[in-house]
Write a structure and sequence with these properties.
GO molecular function, one term: nickel cation binding
CATH topology of one domain: hypothetical protein PF0899 fold
Family: Belongs to the HypA/HybF family.
Bound molecules: zinc ion
Largest sheet: 3 strands, mixed
Oligomer: single chain
Shape: elongated
Number of strands: 6
CATH class of one domain: Alpha Beta
InterPro entries: HypA/HybF
Order of helices and strands: HEHEEEEE
CATH architecture of one domain: 2-Layer Sandwich
Function: Involved in the maturation of [NiFe] hydrogenases. Required for nickel insertion into the metal center of the hydrogenase.
Protein name: Hydrogenase maturation factor HypA
Strand content: 25-35%
Mean pLDDT: 95
């Protein structure tokens, strides 16, 4: 359910951006969402369709780029996507540590339309 406030926030930011650029409407908003960010893309789209009604965002498409979490190997420093039930580096077999990769959540770009 915490997608609701974040979606309101996204719309607010997009509207501010569009207003500053004198846009007539917002065509699309691209979000980067890490699998470990705690946010679910589908829920954001669902709330977006409801909250954006009557705003410059109405009818805009939400594009979501998913980021897979990556671990950093404590042995060789390589970044890798972990396999199910394993934390081992595919290169050297050492254990990987969690990184910030996969926890992202931000607006990558906003596409606007001018009359
Ligand atoms: Zn390694």
């Amino acid at each position: 359910m915490h997608e609701f406030p974040i979606t309101q926030q996204i719309i607010k930011i997009a509207e501010k951006h569009a207003t500053e650029l004198c846009a007539s409407r917002i065509k699309s908003i691209k979000l980067v969402v890490g699998d470990y960010s705690g946010f679910i893309g589908d829920s954001i789209q669902m709330y977006f369709d409801v909250i954006s009604e009557g705003t410059l965002c109405e009818g805009a498409v939400i594009e979501i780029e998913h980021r897979k979490p990556k671990l950093r190997c404590t042995g060789c420093g390589e970044l890798f996507e972990r396999e199910l039930l394993s934390f081992s580096c595919p290169t050297c077999g050492e254990t990987g540590e969690p990184t910030e990769i996969g926890k992202e959540f931000y607006i990558d770009s906003i596409e606007i339309e001018k009359e």
